Amino acid sequence: MQMSLLGIFAFFVALVCAVQGQTRGTVRLVRNGVPDVSSAYSSGIVEIFYSASSSTTNIWGNICDDTSFGDSEANVICNQLGYNGVSTYGRAGSTSSYGTDTAATIVDDVKCTLSTYLTLDQCRLTTTISSFCASDTEDIYVSCSK
Predict the structure, then answer these.
(1) If DSSP codes are grouped into helix, strand and coil, which group holds residue 16?
(2) Residue limits of the SRCR domain (predicted)?
């Protein structure tokens, strides 16, 4: 069976994304705009690989800290990263510990009914971003328990 060049390219791109763990809903921590690619960070600004409301292509972006974000959501993020829950969480603008980043906010209104969910994909969220989330100071940060 002969594969077209486009088919081979699509397979290669999918393979690279899978190897790097970049599937929809993947989360990572960022400090001073530098993503944690070696799982060395247990705290930082949270980015999610998701499709923004104006796109069907997944990109890395931030999660807005709004009124629905709390203990359950922070615990799900830390559990998804392989940690034993969260020790602290909050708005990136409330601390200078993690610097700033330039990623756009692409997810808002995250609500996890249970803190035992394995990924944020099990939670309710929206890609319609409220004006409250326009500033990078509203980005989520977590400090996970080791």
Answers:
(1) helix
(2) 27-145
